[in-house]
UniProtKB/TrEMBL annotation:
Keywords from the UniProt entry: Hydrolase, Membrane, Transmembrane, Transmembrane helix
Highest taxon of the lineage: Bacteria
A single MF term (Gene Ontology): hydrolase activity
Chain segments annotated as transmembrane: 30-51
Pfam families (alphabetical): Sortase (PF04203)
Source taxonomy: Bacteria, Candidatus Shapironibacteriota
Name this protein carries in UniProt: Sortase
Gene3D superfamilies in alphabetical order: Sortase
Length: 237
């Protein structure tokens, strides 16, 4: 019989693991991370410059902003000045800029009472004692439609004051004559384009018109009667 004696002092062989691929991947990841960190740090450091560059390239220029602000201020100042001049002109005529009519040729000037029902005698009689009546449902200056104003006339000079016959001389207006309306602080100028006589029950001029703004002045015809109506038409200038 043979005996095999195991040598416990003999070194054992241990399989070694190759760490090079793992270390390579780790190094690569670390490299990427370092690049990202470096890029982020650089971007943060450069951000004020980048913001300024972007504003310069794509944002409004300071000169443009200043110019717009300046023009806006100039426009506001011009508008204030213009309104003051309009108010002074109206005051010179003896009217206000709230709602008034001036016809220089016939020296007619009066306040306008807005939204008066032409079918309500009591209402329009009260309004005509104060001035000129603006027909309810018709437009206002600058609105683009028909503006219908009516007032008394008379055949006797002594009755002008009695009946507040502001349109006493409306018949004297001719094409080209100027009519001024002050409304809401603004001045609107019109030029007479024609006139005609219509039946007393003709209400066609009260209906809306899509053919542009017109100022329509109406009074009794012949003066001092209620037989017919004299219509004067004026257009914006």
């Amino acid at each position: 019989m043979e005996f095999v004696i195991y040598d416990c002092h003999r070194p054992q062989t241990v399989a070694k693991t190759d760490l090079r691929p793992l270390l390579g991947k780790l190094s690569k990841n670390i490299g990427y991370n370092l690049l990202i960190i470096a890029f982020a740090v650089g971007l943060y450091a450069a951000s004020p410059s980048l913001v300024k560059e972007a504003i310069f390239r794509f944002g409004p220029k300071q000169q443009e902003i200043n110019a717009k602000a300046t023009f806006g201020q100039i426009n506001r100042e011009e508008e204030i000045t213009r309104q003051k001049l309009i108010a002074q002109e109206a005051e010179g005529y003896g009217v206000t800029t709230d709602f008034s009519l001036v016809i220089p040729k016939i020296n007619a000037k009066a306040q306008i009472i807005p939204n008066v029902d032409p079918g309500n005698k009591e209402e329009y009689t009260a309004a005509l004692k104060q001035g000129i009546a603006h027909a309810y449902g018709t437009d206002f200056p600058g609105g683009g439609g028909n503006i219908f104003l009516f007032s008394h006339s008379t055949n006797v000079q002594s009755n002008v004051a009695t009946y507040n016959a502001i349109f006493y001389l409306l018949k004297e207006l001719e094409a080209g004559d100027k009519v001024i309306v002050f409304y809401a602080g603004q001045k609107f100028e019109y030029q007479v384009s024609g006139k005609e006589t219509v039946e007393a029950d003709n209400t066609g001029w009260l209906t809306p018109d899509v053919n542009g703004e017109k100022l329509i002045l109406q009074t009794c015809w012949p003066p001092g009667t209620s037989l017919k109506r004299l219509i004067v038409i004026a257009k914006p200038v």
